[in-house]
Design a protein that fits this description.
Chain lengths: 316, 258
């Protein structure tokens, strides 16, 4: 079953800005889906329409088969939304915020209190349950918004840049939590600017730019289209020697500093030849990493391609 | 199922609203007590003694119902206007908008908050009035309660409509200052419209607050400048119109959905 199905979705804001130009999008049940795009591409508008915070101009939106126009109540019950900006009452306590949210979904107060304990404990906020939200750190506020979105136990969780401004340790713990709840069956749609996040977590991706979906595929397929990668190798010369002239044959390479080299490797070339040649020269490779995030390179390429003016066809 | 869900959602909004104004009780419950004490001291004791009687009652007794009603009006209005606008401003209104809460439940929930605050303030002001009036008698308790509830509902709705349209905090203070206060002062709180000369007595009858003050005064003292039936009909008609307006605005997402 499709968790989300969008057909011909358009949004024209007052003033004439066309934020969405008739997009189609499908997300399968159980998926961990990334919706990527530069600022102003239409990600938040899409999410706003799905969550019924923004009125669409035209098109069809279905969540688990429930239509936005005719089955709004049922559709809303399926969705948990974690918005980009903190939008809870800063003067309410952590527990009040999550219990009230459950109440808006018709969850009785006793059950809401039980669930509040469960989710606040899972997200490390139980000790803060009686504190006003304004006293929480940025990372805690992000986790509070996730807890709030889960209290009515939705089948589809939509997160709009959930780890923005969160330190790396907390980000990774949030990734772990999201992976856990996805394994338990919750479909997740994520927008993010951290492409590493999408690469680590998501199975499928749609890239949106200027109100149009320019790519919609699996992360694996997308990465497979990458023809060339640049690797940074930390190296150590043979004992007693300095790192002198290096010979790397058919490879393009650069030496940014005395103990590392950057090598451009085409997909057809493979890395073995690089290691062979370095080994022959007595150079030991201590460590290796991608110079840039692979998905980031693709993302930039795709967006740039999409923005290039289309050439007029010439008749033959 | 649907009624149980709606009841839980309504209960949640109401508890949230009551918690809000009780948390800031110094801003919400204390000022009316102080303001009304000043009115009783200045208009009732000091000026009132020179005025003598109005509507066949000592002036102090005459203004008690008007002052209670004035508190009910301003507190209902400001409670809902500021709460709804704050929720819009901080964007926590989105908590309700993403959930399957119906428009009618949202409206009734906010009215419930305004009504709760108005009733508490009405009790406080009534208790304050006991300090100044020796012999407080209630002519018709049912009319008294009905008028307070209907008036509070009406001004909660008016506050909600103001909150929906407001774009800045200034917008929610303009209406009370330039519309609500003049209407209340000219609505017969401090005087009987029979004192107004000729045409002004007729003009005063276009003021809806006049009917609320007089219906309440009837419930309290058994006297009124206008017929009770007319007063209640006017208040109910305004309630219907304002509820419909608030419903249409929220349903269309005016001020809250782009």
């Amino acid at each position: 079953m499709k968790a989300l199905s969008i057909r011909g979705l358009r949004k024209v804001y007052k003033g004439g800005l066309e934020a969405l130009k008739g997009i189609d999008l499908d997300v399968e049940e159980g998926d961990f889906f990334a919706l990527l795009g530069p600022n102003g591409a239409g990600k938040s508008t899409t999410i706003g329409i799905i969550a019924s915070l923004i009125n669409k101009t035209e098109g069809e939106v279905k969540v688990f088969g429930y239509d936005l126009d005719t089955q709004l109540v049922e559709l809303k019950r399926q969705i948990g939304l974690v918005p980009q900006e903190f939008n809870f009452n800063q003067f309410e306590t952590v527990r009040q915020i999550v219990v009230n949210q459950a109440g808006y979904y018709g969850v009785h107060r006793n059950l809401a209190n039980e669930r509040a304990e469960k989710y606040l404990k899972q997200l490390g906020l139980w000790e803060k349950r009686n504190e006003p939200a304004r006293s929480l750190s940025g990372g805690m506020k992000r986790r509070l918004m996730i807890a709030r979105a889960l209290l009515h136990e939705p089948k589809l969780l939509i997160l709009d840049e959930p780890t923005a401004g969160v330190d790396i340790e907390l980000r990774r713990s949030m990734w772990g939590y999201l992976e856990d709840i996805n394994r338990e069956g919750i479909t997740i749609i994520l927008t993010t600017h951290y492409l590493e996040e999408a690469e680590s977590l998501c199975r499928n991706v749609a890239i949106i730019d200027n109100g149009v979906i320019i790519k919609n595929t699996s992360i694996k397929r997308l990465l497979a289209t990458l023809n060339m990668e640049t690797f940074v190798l930390d190296v150590e010369p043979a004992e007693g020697d300095e790192l002198g002239e290096i010979e790397l044959g058919e490879f393009n390479w650069r030496q940014p500093d005395e103990l590392s080299i950057e090598v451009d490797v085409q997909k057809s070339q493979g890395l073995n030849r690089v290691f062979e040649q370095l080994s022959k020269q007595g150079i030991k490779v201590l460590s290796m990493r991608n110079k840039a995030n692979r998905l980031e390179e693709l993302f930039v390429d795709l967006v740039e391609q999409g923005r290039q003016p289309k050439q007029k066809k010439t008749g033959s | 199922m649907a009624s149980s869900f709606n009841f839980v959602a309504l209960q949640t909004i109401w508890i949230k609203e009551c918690t809000r104004f009780l948390r800031i009780w110094i801003q919400t419950l204390v000022p009316p007590a102080i303001t009304m004490t000043l009115y009783f001291v200045i208009f009732g004791s000091i000026v009132g003694e020179r005025i003598g009687e109005m509507g066949g009652r000592p002036y102090m007794e005459f203004i008690v119902p008007g002052l209670i009603m004035m508190s009910v009006i301003t507190n209902s209005y400001s409670n809902v206007a500021s709460s709804f606008f704050s929720a819009k401003f901080q964007r926590n209104i989105e908590e309700m908008l993403v959930a399957p809460v119906s428009t009618a439940v949202i409206i009734v929930g906010y009215i419930g908050g305004g009504l709760a605050r108005a009733l508490i303030v009405a009790v406080i002001v009534t208790l304050v009035s006991f300090l100044f009036v020796d012999n407080v008698q209630i002519h018709h308790g049912g009319i008294l309660v009905l008028t307070v509830v209907l008036t509070s509902t009406l001004f909660s709705l008016a506050g909600l409509i103001n909150g929906i349209h407001a774009k800045t905090f200034d917008d929610i203070s303009i209406v009370p200052t330039f519309i609500l206060t003049p209407l209340t002062y000219l609505g017969g709180v401090f005087f009987s419209i029979s004192l107004l000369p000729g045409i002004w007595s007729t003009v005063a009858q276009a003021n809806p607050v006049l009917y609320m003050v007089n219906a309440f005064r009837y419930g309290f003292l058994g006297i009124s400048d206008v017929g009770l039936g007319v007063s209640l009909s006017v208040i109910i008609a305004f309630n219907i119109v304002f509820f419909a307006a608030a419903y249409i605005l929220l349903q269309r997402g005016v001020g809250i959905r782009s």
